[in-house]
Design goal:
50% of the residues lie in helices and 12% in strands. It has 16 helices and 9 strands. The protein has helices at 5-10, 31-40, 43-47, 50-64, 77-81, 102-106, 115-131, 145-154, 162-170, 172-196, 213-234, 254-258, 271-277, 292-295, 297-310, 330-342; strands at 68-70, 86-89, 93-96, 137-143, 200-205, 240-244, 262-264, 283-288, 316-320. The structure holds coproporphyrinogen III (CP3).
Length: 344
Protein backbone atom coordinates (compact mmCIF):
# COMPACT_ATOMS: atom_id res chain seq x y z
CA UNK A 1 0.00 0.00 0.00
CA UNK A 2 1.22 3.49 -0.79
CA UNK A 3 2.17 5.49 2.28
CA UNK A 4 -0.59 7.32 4.09
CA UNK A 5 -0.87 10.98 3.06
CA UNK A 6 0.29 12.39 6.41
CA UNK A 7 3.37 10.17 6.39
CA UNK A 8 4.18 11.29 2.85
CA UNK A 9 3.91 14.97 3.83
CA UNK A 10 6.12 14.30 6.87
CA UNK A 11 8.76 12.78 4.55
CA UNK A 12 8.79 16.06 2.66
CA UNK A 13 6.45 15.33 -0.22
CA UNK A 14 4.37 18.17 -1.68
CA UNK A 15 0.88 16.74 -2.20
CA UNK A 16 -1.79 18.16 -4.55
CA UNK A 17 -4.18 18.44 -1.58
CA UNK A 18 -2.84 18.79 1.96
CA UNK A 19 -3.88 16.05 4.39
CA UNK A 20 -5.99 17.40 7.25
CA UNK A 21 -6.72 16.78 10.91
CA UNK A 22 -7.62 19.12 13.76
CA UNK A 23 -6.27 19.69 17.27
CA UNK A 24 -8.89 18.66 19.88
CA UNK A 25 -10.91 17.03 17.09
CA UNK A 26 -12.40 14.71 19.72
CA UNK A 27 -13.97 17.27 22.02
CA UNK A 28 -16.97 18.96 23.52
CA UNK A 29 -18.20 20.61 20.28
CA UNK A 30 -19.34 17.10 19.22
CA UNK A 31 -22.59 15.74 20.73
CA UNK A 32 -21.28 12.17 20.46
CA UNK A 33 -18.20 13.14 22.52
CA UNK A 34 -20.38 14.70 25.22
CA UNK A 35 -22.46 11.52 25.38
CA UNK A 36 -19.42 9.22 25.76
CA UNK A 37 -17.85 11.56 28.33
CA UNK A 38 -21.08 11.41 30.35
CA UNK A 39 -20.97 7.62 30.13
CA UNK A 40 -17.38 7.63 31.44
CA UNK A 41 -18.37 9.98 34.29
CA UNK A 42 -15.68 12.64 33.96
CA UNK A 43 -12.78 13.66 31.76
CA UNK A 44 -10.02 11.74 33.56
CA UNK A 45 -12.11 8.56 33.76
CA UNK A 46 -12.56 8.89 30.01
CA UNK A 47 -8.79 9.24 29.48
CA UNK A 48 -8.08 6.09 31.53
CA UNK A 49 -10.84 3.95 29.95
CA UNK A 50 -9.22 2.41 26.83
CA UNK A 51 -12.50 1.37 25.14
CA UNK A 52 -14.18 4.74 25.62
CA UNK A 53 -11.02 6.76 24.89
CA UNK A 54 -10.64 4.81 21.63
CA UNK A 55 -14.34 5.43 20.90
CA UNK A 56 -14.03 9.24 21.21
CA UNK A 57 -10.82 9.18 19.15
CA UNK A 58 -12.73 7.40 16.36
CA UNK A 59 -15.81 9.67 16.44
CA UNK A 60 -14.34 12.55 14.38
CA UNK A 61 -12.81 10.02 11.95
CA UNK A 62 -16.26 8.49 11.32
CA UNK A 63 -17.98 11.85 11.06
CA UNK A 64 -15.42 13.69 8.90
CA UNK A 65 -12.87 11.21 7.52
CA UNK A 66 -9.86 13.16 8.80
CA UNK A 67 -6.50 11.89 7.54
CA UNK A 68 -5.20 11.44 11.09
CA UNK A 69 -6.56 10.46 14.47
CA UNK A 70 -4.90 11.81 17.61
CA UNK A 71 -4.88 9.60 20.66
CA UNK A 72 -7.41 10.84 23.22
CA UNK A 73 -5.53 11.60 26.45
CA UNK A 74 -4.05 14.71 28.09
CA UNK A 75 -0.60 16.23 28.57
CA UNK A 76 -1.18 16.29 32.35
CA UNK A 77 -1.35 12.50 32.71
CA UNK A 78 2.47 12.37 32.81
CA UNK A 79 2.71 14.52 35.98
CA UNK A 80 0.06 12.28 37.50
CA UNK A 81 2.15 9.22 36.58
CA UNK A 82 5.14 10.90 38.26
CA UNK A 83 3.08 11.12 41.45
CA UNK A 84 1.41 14.56 41.30
CA UNK A 85 -2.26 14.81 42.28
CA UNK A 86 -4.43 15.86 39.32
CA UNK A 87 -8.09 16.81 39.09
CA UNK A 88 -10.26 18.94 36.82
CA UNK A 89 -12.61 21.65 38.07
CA UNK A 90 -15.64 21.89 35.77
CA UNK A 91 -15.68 25.14 33.83
CA UNK A 92 -12.23 26.12 35.12
CA UNK A 93 -9.63 23.56 34.10
CA UNK A 94 -6.89 21.42 35.63
CA UNK A 95 -5.56 21.53 39.18
CA UNK A 96 -2.39 19.78 40.39
CA UNK A 97 -0.41 19.48 43.60
CA UNK A 98 2.48 21.95 43.17
CA UNK A 99 6.24 21.44 42.84
CA UNK A 100 8.02 24.52 44.19
CA UNK A 101 10.44 23.10 46.78
CA UNK A 102 13.11 20.41 46.86
CA UNK A 103 10.83 18.39 49.17
CA UNK A 104 8.00 18.52 46.59
CA UNK A 105 10.43 17.34 43.93
CA UNK A 106 11.92 14.55 46.05
CA UNK A 107 8.60 12.68 46.31
CA UNK A 108 8.21 12.43 42.52
CA UNK A 109 8.75 9.00 41.00
CA UNK A 110 11.64 8.21 38.66
CA UNK A 111 10.88 8.46 34.93
CA UNK A 112 11.09 4.69 34.50
CA UNK A 113 8.10 4.26 36.87
CA UNK A 114 5.48 6.11 34.81
CA UNK A 115 4.14 3.09 32.94
CA UNK A 116 2.05 1.68 35.75
CA UNK A 117 -0.33 4.67 35.68
CA UNK A 118 -0.07 5.16 31.92
CA UNK A 119 -0.64 1.57 30.78
CA UNK A 120 -4.36 2.20 29.94
CA UNK A 121 -3.18 4.87 27.47
CA UNK A 122 -0.99 2.32 25.68
CA UNK A 123 -4.01 0.02 25.56
CA UNK A 124 -6.02 2.80 23.87
CA UNK A 125 -3.26 3.11 21.25
CA UNK A 126 -3.37 -0.66 20.64
CA UNK A 127 -7.14 -0.63 20.15
CA UNK A 128 -6.86 2.31 17.76
CA UNK A 129 -4.14 0.75 15.66
CA UNK A 130 -6.49 -2.21 15.12
CA UNK A 131 -9.66 -0.22 14.51
CA UNK A 132 -8.63 2.82 12.47
CA UNK A 133 -9.28 2.78 8.72
CA UNK A 134 -6.19 1.73 6.73
CA UNK A 135 -5.68 5.23 5.32
CA UNK A 136 -5.80 7.04 8.69
CA UNK A 137 -2.56 7.89 10.52
CA UNK A 138 -2.44 7.43 14.30
CA UNK A 139 -0.74 10.30 16.15
CA UNK A 140 0.47 9.91 19.74
CA UNK A 141 1.49 12.92 21.80
CA UNK A 142 2.90 14.36 24.99
CA UNK A 143 3.31 17.82 26.43
CA UNK A 144 6.77 19.33 26.05
CA UNK A 145 8.68 19.52 29.36
CA UNK A 146 8.42 23.33 29.69
CA UNK A 147 4.64 23.44 29.21
CA UNK A 148 4.04 20.51 31.57
CA UNK A 149 6.41 22.09 34.13
CA UNK A 150 4.40 25.34 34.07
CA UNK A 151 1.31 23.41 35.23
CA UNK A 152 3.23 21.40 37.84
CA UNK A 153 4.83 24.50 39.35
CA UNK A 154 1.66 26.64 39.41
CA UNK A 155 -0.75 23.78 40.12
CA UNK A 156 -3.02 25.14 37.37
CA UNK A 157 -3.07 27.02 34.08
CA UNK A 158 -1.79 30.60 34.29
CA UNK A 159 -2.01 33.44 31.75
CA UNK A 160 1.71 34.30 31.85
CA UNK A 161 3.35 31.21 33.41
CA UNK A 162 4.46 33.55 36.23
CA UNK A 163 5.11 30.86 38.87
CA UNK A 164 7.40 28.89 36.53
CA UNK A 165 9.36 32.03 35.60
CA UNK A 166 9.60 32.87 39.30
CA UNK A 167 11.04 29.44 40.07
CA UNK A 168 13.64 29.89 37.31
CA UNK A 169 14.65 33.18 38.94
CA UNK A 170 14.67 31.83 42.52
CA UNK A 171 15.87 28.25 42.21
CA UNK A 172 17.13 27.43 38.74
CA UNK A 173 18.70 24.08 39.77
CA UNK A 174 15.34 22.84 41.08
CA UNK A 175 13.55 24.03 37.94
CA UNK A 176 16.15 22.28 35.79
CA UNK A 177 15.86 19.05 37.81
CA UNK A 178 12.09 19.08 37.20
CA UNK A 179 12.60 19.75 33.49
CA UNK A 180 15.09 16.87 33.33
CA UNK A 181 12.63 14.47 35.02
CA UNK A 182 9.94 15.51 32.55
CA UNK A 183 12.30 15.12 29.59
CA UNK A 184 13.13 11.54 30.62
CA UNK A 185 9.49 10.76 31.46
CA UNK A 186 8.35 12.09 28.07
CA UNK A 187 10.86 9.84 26.27
CA UNK A 188 9.52 6.83 28.21
CA UNK A 189 5.88 7.76 27.58
CA UNK A 190 6.24 8.43 23.85
CA UNK A 191 8.42 5.37 23.35
CA UNK A 192 5.67 3.14 24.73
CA UNK A 193 3.04 4.88 22.59
CA UNK A 194 5.19 4.12 19.53
CA UNK A 195 5.62 0.48 20.59
CA UNK A 196 1.83 0.24 20.99
CA UNK A 197 1.24 1.51 17.43
CA UNK A 198 1.50 5.32 17.24
CA UNK A 199 2.85 6.14 13.77
CA UNK A 200 3.75 9.77 14.47
CA UNK A 201 4.23 11.62 17.74
CA UNK A 202 3.61 15.28 18.50
CA UNK A 203 5.14 17.40 21.25
CA UNK A 204 2.80 20.16 22.49
CA UNK A 205 4.75 23.14 23.85
CA UNK A 206 1.72 25.38 24.28
CA UNK A 207 3.59 27.96 26.38
CA UNK A 208 6.86 28.05 24.39
CA UNK A 209 5.99 31.65 23.46
CA UNK A 210 6.54 32.86 27.01
CA UNK A 211 10.23 31.86 26.86
CA UNK A 212 12.63 34.30 25.25
CA UNK A 213 16.27 34.43 24.23
CA UNK A 214 18.51 31.88 25.92
CA UNK A 215 15.66 30.49 28.03
CA UNK A 216 13.81 29.52 24.84
CA UNK A 217 16.87 27.64 23.58
CA UNK A 218 17.53 25.92 26.91
CA UNK A 219 13.97 25.07 27.95
CA UNK A 220 12.00 24.69 24.69
CA UNK A 221 14.49 23.86 21.96
CA UNK A 222 17.01 21.69 23.84
CA UNK A 223 14.48 19.32 25.54
CA UNK A 224 12.72 18.87 22.18
CA UNK A 225 16.07 18.09 20.53
CA UNK A 226 16.93 15.49 23.19
CA UNK A 227 13.50 13.83 23.14
CA UNK A 228 13.49 13.62 19.34
CA UNK A 229 17.07 12.29 19.15
CA UNK A 230 16.34 9.56 21.71
CA UNK A 231 13.01 8.56 20.10
CA UNK A 232 14.65 8.32 16.68
CA UNK A 233 17.52 6.27 18.14
CA UNK A 234 15.04 3.84 19.71
CA UNK A 235 12.53 3.86 16.82
CA UNK A 236 14.39 4.66 13.58
CA UNK A 237 12.29 6.68 11.15
CA UNK A 238 9.54 7.68 13.61
CA UNK A 239 8.24 11.09 12.44
CA UNK A 240 7.88 13.85 15.03
CA UNK A 241 5.78 17.03 14.89
CA UNK A 242 6.93 19.82 17.22
CA UNK A 243 4.54 22.59 18.28
CA UNK A 244 6.40 25.44 19.99
CA UNK A 245 3.24 27.54 20.09
CA UNK A 246 3.66 31.29 19.64
CA UNK A 247 7.39 30.92 19.06
CA UNK A 248 7.20 33.71 16.41
CA UNK A 249 10.69 34.31 14.95
CA UNK A 250 11.90 31.25 16.87
CA UNK A 251 9.90 29.03 14.50
CA UNK A 252 12.68 29.76 11.98
CA UNK A 253 15.21 26.93 12.09
CA UNK A 254 13.35 25.06 14.86
CA UNK A 255 12.94 21.88 12.81
CA UNK A 256 16.62 21.78 11.82
CA UNK A 257 17.80 22.50 15.35
CA UNK A 258 15.59 19.87 17.01
CA UNK A 259 15.41 17.19 14.31
CA UNK A 260 11.60 17.53 14.07
CA UNK A 261 10.06 16.39 10.78
CA UNK A 262 7.39 19.07 10.94
CA UNK A 263 6.74 22.29 12.82
CA UNK A 264 3.15 23.05 13.78
CA UNK A 265 2.29 26.75 13.51
CA UNK A 266 -0.19 28.76 15.52
CA UNK A 267 -2.21 31.46 13.75
CA UNK A 268 -0.20 34.43 15.05
CA UNK A 269 2.17 34.00 12.09
CA UNK A 270 0.97 34.62 8.53
CA UNK A 271 1.05 31.63 6.17
CA UNK A 272 2.99 33.70 3.60
CA UNK A 273 5.71 34.51 6.16
CA UNK A 274 5.81 30.91 7.40
CA UNK A 275 6.04 29.51 3.85
CA UNK A 276 9.06 31.71 3.14
CA UNK A 277 10.80 31.27 6.49
CA UNK A 278 9.78 27.92 8.00
CA UNK A 279 8.44 25.69 5.23
CA UNK A 280 11.72 26.16 3.30
CA UNK A 281 13.17 23.62 5.78
CA UNK A 282 10.41 21.01 5.42
CA UNK A 283 6.87 20.13 6.37
CA UNK A 284 4.69 22.58 8.29
CA UNK A 285 1.30 22.08 9.92
CA UNK A 286 -1.39 24.69 10.44
CA UNK A 287 -2.65 27.31 10.84
CA UNK A 288 -6.31 28.38 10.57
CA UNK A 289 -7.57 30.43 13.53
CA UNK A 290 -9.92 28.21 15.53
CA UNK A 291 -12.43 31.10 15.86
CA UNK A 292 -13.51 30.28 12.27
CA UNK A 293 -14.96 27.03 13.59
CA UNK A 294 -17.35 29.23 15.61
CA UNK A 295 -18.04 31.97 13.05
CA UNK A 296 -17.95 30.03 9.73
CA UNK A 297 -19.13 31.64 6.48
CA UNK A 298 -17.16 33.41 3.76
CA UNK A 299 -14.33 34.39 6.10
CA UNK A 300 -13.69 30.72 6.93
CA UNK A 301 -13.61 29.80 3.23
CA UNK A 302 -11.37 32.73 2.24
CA UNK A 303 -8.89 32.16 5.06
CA UNK A 304 -8.75 28.38 4.45
CA UNK A 305 -8.03 28.96 0.75
CA UNK A 306 -5.33 31.48 1.56
CA UNK A 307 -3.54 29.00 3.84
CA UNK A 308 -3.79 26.14 1.32
CA UNK A 309 -2.44 28.42 -1.42
CA UNK A 310 0.38 29.93 0.65
CA UNK A 311 1.71 26.48 1.59
CA UNK A 312 1.00 24.79 -1.77
CA UNK A 313 4.62 24.78 -2.96
CA UNK A 314 5.91 22.54 -0.16
CA UNK A 315 4.94 19.82 2.30
CA UNK A 316 1.92 20.87 4.37
CA UNK A 317 -0.57 19.29 6.77
CA UNK A 318 -3.68 21.43 7.19
CA UNK A 319 -4.75 22.06 10.80
CA UNK A 320 -5.98 24.79 13.09
CA UNK A 321 -3.56 27.12 14.89
CA UNK A 322 -4.78 25.79 18.25
CA UNK A 323 -7.45 23.40 19.53
CA UNK A 324 -11.07 23.69 18.43
CA UNK A 325 -13.23 25.22 21.17
CA UNK A 326 -16.40 23.76 22.74
CA UNK A 327 -18.59 26.51 21.18
CA UNK A 328 -17.60 25.51 17.61
CA UNK A 329 -20.29 24.43 15.12
CA UNK A 330 -19.67 20.93 13.68
CA UNK A 331 -20.93 22.16 10.29
CA UNK A 332 -18.10 24.69 10.08
CA UNK A 333 -15.62 21.83 10.45
CA UNK A 334 -17.21 20.17 7.42
CA UNK A 335 -17.01 23.44 5.48
CA UNK A 336 -13.28 23.73 6.27
CA UNK A 337 -12.63 20.15 5.13
CA UNK A 338 -14.64 20.61 1.91
CA UNK A 339 -12.76 23.82 1.16
CA UNK A 340 -9.33 22.21 1.71
CA UNK A 341 -10.22 19.17 -0.39
CA UNK A 342 -11.63 21.32 -3.21
CA UNK A 343 -8.18 22.91 -3.61
CA UNK A 344 -7.09 26.54 -3.42
C1 LIG B 1 -2.29 22.75 27.87
C2 LIG B 1 -2.85 21.42 27.43
C3 LIG B 1 -3.68 20.57 28.18
N1 LIG B 1 -3.97 19.49 27.38
C4 LIG B 1 -3.36 19.62 26.16
C5 LIG B 1 -2.62 20.82 26.19
C6 LIG B 1 -1.71 21.30 25.10
C7 LIG B 1 -2.43 21.79 23.91
C8 LIG B 1 -3.21 23.05 24.13
O1 LIG B 1 -2.61 24.08 24.40
O2 LIG B 1 -4.43 22.98 23.95
C9 LIG B 1 -3.35 18.71 25.04
C10 LIG B 1 -4.54 17.86 24.80
N2 LIG B 1 -5.70 17.76 25.51
C11 LIG B 1 -6.51 16.85 24.92
C12 LIG B 1 -5.82 16.28 23.82
C13 LIG B 1 -6.34 15.11 23.03
C14 LIG B 1 -6.05 15.08 21.65
C15 LIG B 1 -6.73 16.14 20.81
O3 LIG B 1 -7.94 15.98 20.55
O4 LIG B 1 -6.04 17.07 20.33
C16 LIG B 1 -4.59 16.94 23.72
C17 LIG B 1 -3.50 16.80 22.69
C18 LIG B 1 -7.85 16.48 25.35
C19 LIG B 1 -8.58 17.38 26.27
N3 LIG B 1 -8.09 17.99 27.40
C20 LIG B 1 -9.09 18.66 28.04
C21 LIG B 1 -10.29 18.50 27.30
C22 LIG B 1 -11.65 19.02 27.70
C23 LIG B 1 -12.09 18.19 28.87
C24 LIG B 1 -13.58 17.91 28.93
O5 LIG B 1 -14.09 17.08 28.15
O6 LIG B 1 -14.19 18.50 29.83
C25 LIG B 1 -9.98 17.69 26.20
C26 LIG B 1 -10.92 17.19 25.14
C27 LIG B 1 -8.96 19.39 29.34
C28 LIG B 1 -7.75 20.21 29.53
N4 LIG B 1 -6.47 19.78 29.43
C29 LIG B 1 -5.60 20.83 29.64
C30 LIG B 1 -6.37 21.98 29.91
C31 LIG B 1 -5.79 23.36 30.16
C32 LIG B 1 -7.70 21.58 29.88
C33 LIG B 1 -8.89 22.41 30.27
C34 LIG B 1 -9.22 23.42 29.22
C35 LIG B 1 -10.40 22.96 28.45
O7 LIG B 1 -11.41 22.61 29.10
O8 LIG B 1 -10.36 22.97 27.20
C36 LIG B 1 -4.14 20.73 29.57
Amino acid sequence: MADKTILRALKGETLPTPPIWMMRQAGRYLPEYRATRAQAGDFLSLCYNPELAAEVTLQPIRRYGFDAAILFADILLLPQALGADLWFVTGEGPRLSTVTTQADFDVLKPASDVHEVLSPIYETVKILSRELPAETTLIGFAGAPWTVATYMIAGRGTPDQGPAHALIAENRPLFEALLERLTLGTIEYLSKQIEAGAEVVKLFDSWAGSLSGEDFDRYALEPARRIIAELKARHPGIPVIAFPREAGEKYVGFAKATGADCVALDNSVSPEWAAANVQIDGCVQGNLASKHMVTGGDALVAETREIVKAFSKGPHIFNLGHGITPDADPENVQLMIDTVRAGA
